Amino acid sequence: MGIHTGEAEAKNNEYHGYLTLSLTQRLMSSGHGGQVLVSGTTENLVRDRLQKEIDLQDMGEHNFKDILQAVRVFQIFAPGLQEEFPPIRTLDILPNNLPTQLTSFIGRNNEITEVSRLLANTGLLTLTGAGGTGKTRLSLQVASKVLDTFSDGVWLVELASLSDPLRLPQAVASVWNLCEQPGRSLDDTLIDYLRAKSLLLILDNCEHLIDACAQLVTALLI
Fold this sequence. Notes:
Strand order of the largest sheet: 1-4-6-5
Order of helices and strands: EEEHEHEEHHEHHEH
Structural class: alpha/beta
Shape: elongated
Number of domains: 2
Number of strands: 8
Mean pLDDT: 88
Oligomer: single chain
Strand content: 15-25%
Protein backbone atom coordinates (compact mmCIF):
# COMPACT_ATOMS: atom_id res chain seq x y z
CA MET A 1 0.00 0.00 0.00
CA GLY A 2 1.03 3.59 -0.60
CA ILE A 3 -0.50 6.37 1.50
CA HIS A 4 -0.16 10.08 0.79
CA THR A 5 -2.19 13.15 1.72
CA GLY A 6 -2.85 16.07 -0.61
CA GLU A 7 -5.43 18.12 -2.44
CA ALA A 8 -7.57 16.45 -5.07
CA GLU A 9 -10.91 17.70 -6.35
CA ALA A 10 -13.12 17.73 -9.40
CA LYS A 11 -14.28 21.01 -10.94
CA ASN A 12 -16.49 21.23 -14.02
CA ASN A 13 -15.94 17.54 -14.74
CA GLU A 14 -12.16 18.05 -14.68
CA TYR A 15 -9.87 16.39 -12.15
CA HIS A 16 -7.41 18.60 -10.28
CA GLY A 17 -4.82 16.89 -8.12
CA TYR A 18 -2.56 14.98 -10.47
CA LEU A 19 0.51 15.32 -8.21
CA THR A 20 -1.35 13.89 -5.23
CA LEU A 21 -2.58 10.91 -7.21
CA SER A 22 0.76 10.44 -8.96
CA LEU A 23 2.79 10.39 -5.74
CA THR A 24 0.35 7.98 -4.12
CA GLN A 25 0.71 5.64 -7.08
CA ARG A 26 4.51 5.99 -7.07
CA LEU A 27 4.64 5.10 -3.36
CA MET A 28 2.51 2.01 -3.91
CA SER A 29 4.54 0.88 -6.93
CA SER A 30 7.86 1.31 -5.14
CA GLY A 31 6.94 -1.08 -2.35
CA HIS A 32 6.79 -4.86 -2.17
CA GLY A 33 3.94 -7.24 -1.40
CA GLY A 34 2.82 -6.78 2.20
CA GLN A 35 4.67 -3.49 2.64
CA VAL A 36 2.88 -0.29 3.63
CA LEU A 37 4.61 2.99 2.76
CA VAL A 38 3.63 6.47 3.92
CA SER A 39 4.76 9.86 2.64
CA GLY A 40 6.31 12.43 4.96
CA THR A 41 3.23 14.61 4.55
CA THR A 42 0.96 11.90 5.91
CA GLU A 43 3.45 10.98 8.64
CA ASN A 44 3.32 14.55 9.96
CA LEU A 45 -0.46 14.33 10.22
CA VAL A 46 -0.78 10.94 11.94
CA ARG A 47 2.29 10.33 14.11
CA ASP A 48 0.78 11.75 17.31
CA ARG A 49 -2.45 9.84 16.74
CA LEU A 50 -1.03 6.34 16.26
CA GLN A 51 -1.69 3.54 18.70
CA LYS A 52 1.33 2.52 20.79
CA GLU A 53 1.90 -0.74 18.92
CA ILE A 54 2.15 1.05 15.55
CA ASP A 55 5.37 2.72 14.49
CA LEU A 56 6.60 4.57 11.41
CA GLN A 57 10.21 3.88 10.42
CA ASP A 58 11.99 6.67 8.57
CA MET A 59 13.41 5.30 5.30
CA GLY A 60 14.99 8.59 4.22
CA GLU A 61 14.34 10.73 1.17
CA HIS A 62 13.73 9.14 -2.23
CA ASN A 63 13.24 10.37 -5.78
CA PHE A 64 10.25 9.26 -7.83
CA LYS A 65 9.43 9.60 -11.51
CA ASP A 66 7.59 12.82 -12.39
CA ILE A 67 7.97 14.16 -8.84
CA LEU A 68 10.26 17.19 -8.78
CA GLN A 69 11.34 17.10 -5.13
CA ALA A 70 12.65 14.20 -3.07
CA VAL A 71 10.01 12.62 -0.83
CA ARG A 72 10.62 11.36 2.71
CA VAL A 73 9.20 7.86 3.00
CA PHE A 74 8.15 5.91 6.09
CA GLN A 75 7.27 2.22 6.52
CA ILE A 76 4.50 1.17 8.87
CA PHE A 77 5.49 -1.33 11.56
CA ALA A 78 2.58 -3.03 13.31
CA PRO A 79 1.73 -6.43 14.80
CA GLY A 80 1.11 -8.98 12.05
CA LEU A 81 2.88 -6.99 9.33
CA GLN A 82 6.07 -8.24 7.68
CA GLU A 83 9.02 -6.01 8.57
CA GLU A 84 11.91 -7.01 6.28
CA PHE A 85 11.79 -6.11 2.59
CA PRO A 86 14.27 -5.45 -0.25
CA PRO A 87 15.06 -1.78 -0.96
CA ILE A 88 12.06 0.11 -2.30
CA ARG A 89 12.05 0.62 -6.07
CA THR A 90 12.75 4.30 -6.65
CA LEU A 91 14.96 6.25 -9.03
CA ASP A 92 17.70 6.19 -6.38
CA ILE A 93 18.39 2.49 -6.86
CA LEU A 94 17.99 2.41 -10.65
CA PRO A 95 21.31 3.04 -12.44
CA ASN A 96 21.29 6.31 -14.36
CA ASN A 97 22.96 9.69 -14.69
CA LEU A 98 19.88 11.66 -15.70
CA PRO A 99 19.96 15.28 -14.50
CA THR A 100 17.38 16.49 -12.01
CA GLN A 101 14.65 18.49 -13.73
CA LEU A 102 13.90 21.71 -11.85
CA THR A 103 10.58 22.43 -13.56
CA SER A 104 7.51 20.38 -14.43
CA PHE A 105 7.13 18.98 -17.93
CA ILE A 106 3.73 20.15 -19.14
CA GLY A 107 2.04 19.09 -22.34
CA ARG A 108 3.45 17.15 -25.30
CA ASN A 109 1.75 13.99 -24.05
CA ASN A 110 1.24 12.80 -27.62
CA GLU A 111 4.95 13.14 -28.35
CA ILE A 112 5.89 11.32 -25.14
CA THR A 113 3.54 8.45 -25.97
CA GLU A 114 4.77 8.18 -29.55
CA VAL A 115 8.48 8.31 -28.67
CA SER A 116 7.97 5.72 -25.93
CA ARG A 117 6.13 3.45 -28.37
CA LEU A 118 8.83 3.76 -31.02
CA LEU A 119 11.57 3.22 -28.47
CA ALA A 120 10.01 -0.06 -27.36
CA ASN A 121 10.24 -1.43 -30.89
CA THR A 122 13.67 -0.35 -32.12
CA GLY A 123 17.31 -0.40 -31.12
CA LEU A 124 17.95 3.10 -32.50
CA LEU A 125 15.71 6.16 -32.38
CA THR A 126 16.66 9.66 -33.57
CA LEU A 127 14.86 12.86 -32.58
CA THR A 128 15.39 15.70 -35.05
CA GLY A 129 14.21 19.29 -35.22
CA ALA A 130 15.28 22.90 -35.10
CA GLY A 131 17.33 24.10 -32.15
CA GLY A 132 15.32 25.14 -29.12
CA THR A 133 12.28 22.98 -29.88
CA GLY A 134 12.78 20.84 -26.79
CA LYS A 135 14.32 17.65 -28.16
CA THR A 136 16.60 17.23 -25.14
CA ARG A 137 13.87 17.79 -22.58
CA LEU A 138 11.53 15.43 -24.42
CA SER A 139 14.18 12.70 -24.55
CA LEU A 140 14.93 13.11 -20.83
CA GLN A 141 11.24 12.97 -19.96
CA VAL A 142 10.78 9.77 -21.94
CA ALA A 143 13.97 8.33 -20.43
CA SER A 144 12.71 8.90 -16.89
CA LYS A 145 9.45 7.13 -17.75
CA VAL A 146 11.13 4.02 -19.19
CA LEU A 147 13.99 3.89 -16.69
CA ASP A 148 12.66 0.84 -14.90
CA THR A 149 12.45 -1.15 -18.15
CA PHE A 150 16.25 -1.19 -18.63
CA SER A 151 17.98 -3.38 -16.06
CA ASP A 152 21.35 -1.69 -16.65
CA GLY A 153 20.02 1.84 -16.59
CA VAL A 154 19.66 4.95 -18.71
CA TRP A 155 22.72 7.03 -19.53
CA LEU A 156 23.09 10.50 -21.01
CA VAL A 157 26.14 11.65 -22.97
CA GLU A 158 26.12 15.41 -23.57
CA LEU A 159 28.09 16.26 -26.72
CA ALA A 160 27.47 19.99 -27.18
CA SER A 161 30.95 20.93 -25.95
CA LEU A 162 32.79 18.15 -27.81
CA SER A 163 34.45 19.48 -30.96
CA ASP A 164 36.82 16.63 -31.87
CA PRO A 165 35.03 13.61 -33.40
CA LEU A 166 37.97 11.39 -32.46
CA ARG A 167 37.18 11.95 -28.79
CA LEU A 168 33.62 10.65 -29.08
CA PRO A 169 34.42 7.12 -27.81
CA GLN A 170 36.17 8.64 -24.81
CA ALA A 171 33.17 10.86 -24.05
CA VAL A 172 30.85 7.85 -24.10
CA ALA A 173 33.21 5.58 -22.17
CA SER A 174 33.65 8.18 -19.42
CA VAL A 175 30.02 7.64 -18.38
CA TRP A 176 31.05 4.25 -16.98
CA ASN A 177 34.66 5.25 -16.15
CA LEU A 178 36.01 2.94 -18.84
CA CYS A 179 39.63 3.41 -19.91
CA GLU A 180 41.56 2.31 -22.97
CA GLN A 181 43.32 -1.01 -22.42
CA PRO A 182 46.75 -1.97 -23.76
CA GLY A 183 46.51 -3.43 -27.24
CA ARG A 184 42.79 -2.64 -27.63
CA SER A 185 40.93 0.35 -28.98
CA LEU A 186 38.45 2.16 -26.78
CA ASP A 187 35.76 1.27 -29.31
CA ASP A 188 36.40 -2.44 -28.69
CA THR A 189 36.34 -1.90 -24.93
CA LEU A 190 32.99 -0.14 -25.20
CA ILE A 191 31.54 -2.85 -27.42
CA ASP A 192 32.59 -5.61 -25.03
CA TYR A 193 31.27 -3.70 -22.01
CA LEU A 194 27.87 -3.02 -23.53
CA ARG A 195 27.37 -6.30 -25.40
CA ALA A 196 25.41 -8.15 -22.71
CA LYS A 197 23.73 -5.13 -21.13
CA SER A 198 20.18 -3.86 -21.39
CA LEU A 199 20.39 -0.10 -21.26
CA LEU A 200 19.33 3.11 -22.97
CA LEU A 201 22.12 5.38 -24.21
CA ILE A 202 21.17 8.96 -25.07
CA LEU A 203 23.57 10.91 -27.28
CA ASP A 204 22.50 14.55 -27.03
CA ASN A 205 23.50 17.33 -29.46
CA CYS A 206 24.96 15.17 -32.21
CA GLU A 207 24.50 17.53 -35.16
CA HIS A 208 28.17 18.55 -35.37
CA LEU A 209 29.37 14.96 -34.92
CA ILE A 210 26.94 13.13 -37.18
CA ASP A 211 29.44 10.89 -38.99
CA ALA A 212 31.33 9.95 -35.83
CA CYS A 213 28.10 9.22 -33.94
CA ALA A 214 26.76 7.12 -36.82
CA GLN A 215 29.93 5.04 -36.95
CA LEU A 216 30.04 4.47 -33.19
CA VAL A 217 26.34 3.65 -32.87
CA THR A 218 26.56 1.23 -35.79
CA ALA A 219 29.45 -0.57 -34.10
CA LEU A 220 27.59 -0.76 -30.79
CA LEU A 221 24.42 -2.14 -32.38
CA ILE A 222 26.04 -4.90 -34.42
